[in-house]
Amino acid sequence: MILPAHDASVWDPSLDAAADAVGRGESIVLPTDTVYGIGCDAFDAQAVARMLTAKGRGPQSPPPVLVESAEAAAQLAERLPSVAVALMDAFWPGPLTLVVPAMPSLDWDLGETHGTVALRVPDHATARALLTRTGPLAVTSANLTGEAPATTAQEAERFLGAVCEVILDAGPSPIGTASTVLDATQSPMRLVRVGAITREAIEAIVGPGVLDKAAAA
Q1: Cα 27 from Cα 192, distance rounded (Å)
Q2: CATH number at residue 30
Q3: Are 190 and 182 a contacting pair, CB within 8 Å?
Q4: pLDDT average, residue stretch 60-81
Q5: How confident is the model at residue 177 (pLDDT cuts 50, 70, 90)?
Q6: Of 52, 138, 149, 158, which is least surrounded by CB within 10 A?
Q7: Do 83 and 206 touch, CB atoms closer than 8 A?
Q8: Interior/surface letters 53-89, b for 16+ CB within 10 angstroms, e for the rest
Q9: Quick check: helix, strand or coil at residue 164?
Q10: Domain count of the chain?
Q11: Of 60, 69, 57, which Cα lies nearest the Cα of 94?
Q12: Which residues pair with 37 in a beta bridge?
């Protein structure tokens, strides 16, 4: 069911419906600044597994976790390297996903993360308003594996409408390109995926030599 969610600054029954669905262990579709995502409670291992299955993935492809703020991200990370903090200050909220060491005490199972977590604060009012209601969400692009990411609610419904009770529609994705993914658990950092933020933009913040010279996957 597609529900309009255009004004996140006021009480919105669409957001409440989405938050209720998450609380029941269901997956939902939500807008972000990059592309539409399918998301669920990051601390509900069964919901995460069902979400990955619906997308056509397994535990070997753990989803990123979206949070409402850098402060919320810090609570999920065991430590944040200084270069990661500099990038958070520069690009959050925004289309940068940072892989960092996860807090070992967290009671969750996102898949085969090897002790890490990929974190992002989206630059989208509807997404962040939802996150304030739900807490951290495990979110991956709202498409079937091998298909182009959905940039509208209607595209997301075509892919995942059968498994998502709530699809929040906030219009076309502002950026329309996936986030850049950067692994900050190693030195030099590894550019896992080039997306909306370029290598040059990252190096402008952290300086040359901080990124691995190898091409992004």
Answers
A1: 26
A2: 3.90.870.10
A3: yes
A4: 96
A5: very high
A6: 158
A7: yes
A8: ebbebeeeebbbbbbbeeebbbebbeebbebbebbbe
A9: coil
A10: 1
A11: 69
A12: 30, 141
